[in-house]
Amino acid sequence: MTIQKSKLIQGLSWAHEIYADREQRVRELKAAGKKIIGYPCAYVPLEMLTALDLVPYRIYGSIREPVTEADRSLPATFCPFMRSCLDRALKGKDDFLDGLVTAHSCDPQHRTAHVWESCVEYSYTHFIDMPGTLRADSMDYYKGQLADFKKTLEAYTGKKLTADKLKAAIKIHNQQRALVRDMYQLTIPDPPLISGTEILETIKAVMSLPVAEGNELLAGVISEVKSRSKGPPKRRARLMIWSSTLDDTEVMNVFESSANVVMDDSCGGFRPFRANVKPTADPIDGLADYYMNEITCARTFRQAAIGETKKDYPKDLASRFGYVKTIVKDWKINGAILFLVRYCDPFAFEMPSFKDYLNSIGVPSTYIEYDYTVGALAPMKTRVEAFIETIT
Amino acid sequence: MVTGEKKKAIRRLKSMYPLRAKVNESYLKGAEAVKSGRPVVWGMLNYYYGDSVLKAMDIEVVYPENYGAALAAFGVAQQYLDIADADGYPTHLCGYSRANIGYASRMMKQLGGEIPPDAPLGGMPKPLFLMSSTAVCDARYKWFQALGQYMDSPVWTFEAPVPGLHEFFMEGSLERMVKMGVTHLRDFIAFVERLVGRKMDMDKFAETVDIIIEINRVLHETSELRKAEPCPMHSRDFWSAMTPALMLMGDIKDSLKCYYDLYNEVKELVENHVGAVENEKYRMVFAELPPWHSLALFDKLAERGWNFVIESVGYHPPIPIDLSKLTDPVEKITRFNLQKFLGLYQDAKDHNVTEGALAYPYLKYVTEWRCDGALLHPLISCRSASTHLPYVANILLEQVKVPSLTIEGDIVDLRLFDMEDALAKAEPFEETMEHYRQVRKQSGLDW
Fold first, then answer.
1. What is the ipTM of this complex?
2. What CATH architecture does domain A2-167 belong to?
3. Could you report how far apart the first and last alpha carbons of chain A are, in Å?
4. Whole-prediction pTM
C-alpha cells in the first residue's frame, strides 16, 4: 500500500515522491471516506476546510500537457495556468475531488470558476467574491463572504463550524506557515543548504496533503537538510524569483542551472506563508485580515494611504513592495527575475513599477515571460544566463 | 452621364447623431476646463456610480478607455503603444491601457505635462485624480495604479462586487453589497470635496441620479423596441448613441431629450415596419467590443442582409428596477449600479447558466430578439471581453440552437483584424444559420 510506503520514507524523498505523484495520498484518503476539496488559488481559506475535516488539495496546471479540452470553454489568449487547470479537470485527471472552491482573486480565476462549475460536476462548489481594495467597508464585505462560505460548508458537511474548531485549524495552519518560513531560513547561508528545486517540490507536496501530514513532511525536510553534509553547490548569483505562479521544477532548474534561487516569491513558494493569521476573538476577522492584507499578490490594490489626495511614487512603491526590502537584505539577494506567466494582467501591470522599486534598493532585475509550457524553457535558459552574466 | 450616390446598406437613425457628437463635446470640454483652470478627472467606466458624483459637482471626466478607441480610430495609437512597450509594459496587456500609458508617458516625461499637440479631439489633460474600478477586469484598476509612474495624481478605486450565481442568493448578500457601496460612495464624495475644496449639493446630486436612471431606462426601452421585425436600429447606431448613457458624456439633461428623440424615432420606424437593413435576412447579435477601426465590416454584412439587432452586454443599461421609494440618492445610485451586473442573476439561475453577468444575457438576447446567429469578436488584448465568448457559443447552441461565428481581432491593434477573412466566412456561416433555423423548428423553437 502506498500509505505504508509513505510512512517508510521521510523528508526530501517523501516530498519528491508526492511531488511526482501528487494525488496518491488524497486518493487513499478518499478511499478511507474523507472528502477532498480542490482549490486553484492561494486565496482560499484552507483553515475553514481543515476545521471541518475536509482535505484541501491545491489544483495546479501542467506545463507538460497540451491544453486540448479547455479550448472548448476558454479562449487561447487567456491565463495559461487556469486553462491548464480546467483542461485537467475536463480530462478527469482530478476525478478524486469531491468539491471545488474558487475565489475572485483575479479576473481569470473568477471567469474560469463559473465555466468550470458549469462543465464539471462536484458534490460541493463555492465561489468567494473578494474585494480589490483594503478599505474598511471592503473588509466587512469580505468577512460576509467568508461567513457565507462557512454556511455552505456547514450545510455540505452537516457539521457546525465553531469558533474553537476554526481557531484550532488556524493554529495548525500557522504551524505550517512557520515551518515553511523555517525551511526558507535554510537558504540564507551561502551556499544555501537547500535548493529552490527542493523547496518547490516540498511546498507542492505539502499542498497535496492534509495539513498535519504536510507539517510532518516539512519538519522532516528541515531536519534532513540541517543534518546533511552536502547541499546545493554555490552558484554565481543569489536570486529572488518574483512571480504569480512558479510550480514546476523544470522551470526552477532553468534558474538554478546558473544561480542559487534563495527566494521564490510566488504563490507556489514563499508568498502564502510569509505571515501568520493573527489571533482574534472572532477567527473570521483574523482570516479576513490575513488573506486580504498579508498575501502580497499583485491582485490587491494597495496604496500608501487610503483616500490619499496626492500620490508620492516612492511611498506608493513602498506600500506595494516594501516587504521585499527585508527579504533582499536577509537573504543577501543580488538579482531578481520578474517572471510573468503570459496574460497575467495584475503582475504584468506591476512589472515596470516593481523594477523601479528594485532599482531604488539596488537590486538588478530582468523581466522574463513564459507561456506555461515546457517549450518556453530553452529560450528562457539563454535569457537567464545572459542576466547572470550582467550581474556577476 | 448620371452619377448617383450609392445607397447606404445600413439606414442610420437621425436621432443618433446628436448623441454621438457628445463624445467629441466631452473631450473639448475637458480641454477647455484645463484652460480655464478647472479640474479634469480621468475615469474608468464605473457604471454611473462615481460618474454621478462628478457630474453633480460639474467636474469634467474623460475616459482613457474611450480615448484609447479614439486613438485607434484616428490611426495614431501605434506611437503610444510603442512608448508603453519601451517603458516595459508587456504587449499582451489591454490595448487601451497601453495606448493610455504611452500617452501619459509622452505627456508627462517628454512634454512636461502638456497635452501632445497632435492628440485627437483636443487630447486628455493631466487629471486631478484617477477614478478606477474593479468592475469587469483587473486591468481597469491595475492600469491606473501603474500611471503613478508618470504622474502624482491620486487614484480612487471603486469596488465592484461580483458574487457567484448561487452565492448571490444567500441571505443578506445583496444588502451587504449595498452597505459596502453606500459607505464607499459617501467616502468618495468626501474625497472629491477635499480635492476641489467645495461641498456637494445633495439636491443637485439627487436630481442627477434621477436623470441618469431615466436616461438608462429610455435607452433600455429603445432596445426593447428593437425586438421588432424588421429591426430599425442597427448595432452601429447603438454603439454611436450609447456613450452619453454609459459614461454620462455631455450635458445629461440634453442627453435625456436626445434619448427621448431616439426612442420616438425607433418607435415610429417600428410602427412603419422600417428596418435598418433593407432586406433583413439574418437577425444577429454581436459580442462584445466592436472593431472600432473597421466598422465598415457591418456595412458589408448589411449588404448581405445581416441586421445586428442587439449587442455588447457591457454597454447596455441595467434592467430597470423601481427605486422610486428611495430618498437617499447615494443608496439609489448604488443599487442602480449593482443592478447592472446582478439584474439577470435570477433568470440565469433559472436557465442554469452559471455566469449570470456577462454570458447569460446573450441567451436572453438571442431568444427575445429572435436572432439567427451570433458574431463573436474575441480580442487578443481584452480578455475581459473575450473570456466568456466560447461559453456563450456553447450555451447558445446547446440551449436554443443558435450558431456563432468567431472573428478574432483587437481593440487597438489594427493588424490583428482581417476584414477580408471575416467577410469570406460570411457565406458559409449563412448556410450554418439556415441549417439551424431548421433545427430550431424541429426542436419546437419559434424562430
1. 0.94
2. 3-Layer(aba) Sandwich (3.40)
3. 50
4. 0.96
